[in-house]
Hints:
oxidoreductase activity, 39% helix, alpha/beta, Oxidoreductase YtbE, 13% strand, oxidoreductase
Amino acid sequence: MSELNAPFSGGPTLNDGVSIPWLGLGVWQSKDGEEVIHAVKTAVEVGYRSIDTAAAYNNEEGVGQAIRECGVARDELFITTKVWNPDQGYESTLKAFEVSRRKLGLDYIDLYLIHWPVVGKYRETWKALIHLQEEGLIKSIGVSNFQIHHLKEIIEDTGVVPVVNQVEFHPLLTQRELLKYANEQGIQLEAWSPLMQGNLDLPLLKELAGKYDKTPAQIVLRWDLQQGVITIPKSVHADRIRENAGFFDFTLSDEDVKAIEDLNRDHRFGPDPDNFNF
């Protein structure tokens, strides 16, 4: 997997033939306007080419402005956004997509995701995403926070396999069964909250940071990468955005990868996809 050492040029090929970078900038909780604009421009300057936003983040307009002003051609960037829960359903998803596209100021979206599996809605929402892709408005379609049973339902319904499942994934929540199923189905797993919302003060991570002369964050991001999981750490600070990209120039031993995996406690910092009320 030599591409795992390619800082920004490499990336996996999704099941629809589209390539996606291994590293992206997450902009959850980044304020619209100058804060998110600065974060996105900084990330692009560092070398990031993937930006992950969502309708629910309320910063698509700022992301769009940064894209227009960053000095990198649109076709060199990979932009993800997501349909929010109240907007799910077939017709309402089509309308919500147009709102997001207009806010971003883009002719097309690289990856559009169902943000959460809203009971009674996500199956029709998935059909709307398929339609939008057929219309050429989205290059790739996927989901976020889907469990195995959610994935099976939409695949059985439509025969269309999501290209990506973006989920909470980190050393305390290693999602072994979900990762195995995704690999079997050709679904690319993507980690949100990979840095455990800053809860990196685990003795093993500190020990490995010393061993490899890296930060605990870089250790975790490299661990993601060596399992073939895309990672989208969030930050609005220029030094942290640069630091988060510094995990392509070393390799964790198999023993250290396993040691990190053994930290698993099935602990979520975010909501449970089978029990949420928003």
